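Task 17 of the worksheet. Students: predict the tertiary structure of the chain below and write it out as C-alpha cells. Keep your answer in the requested format; marks are given for formatting as well as content.
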Amino acid sequence: MVIAYRAEGRAVFLSAFAKKQRENIEPEELVELREVGLNWLNASVQKIALAIEDGALQEVDLDEQKDT
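Model answer:
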C-alpha cells in the first residue's frame, strides 16, 4: 500500500498491490505517485471537496471506523 501522509494533516491512499502480483514499484511510477500525493496533500479544502463531490476522491471518516 502506498499512502501520502502529513502528520496531523491528511493522508491520501495512492496505490496498493499484492506482493505475489508484483515485487515492487518501478522508479518512474514512484516519482508519479509522489507527485500525485504531494498535490493532494497541498490541495485546498475546496479542491478536495469538489473532488469528493465529483467522485475523484473518497473520504474516510476515522470516527466511523472506531465503532467497528
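Marker's comment: The helical segments are 27-41, 45-54, 62-66. The two ends are 22 Å apart (CA to CA).
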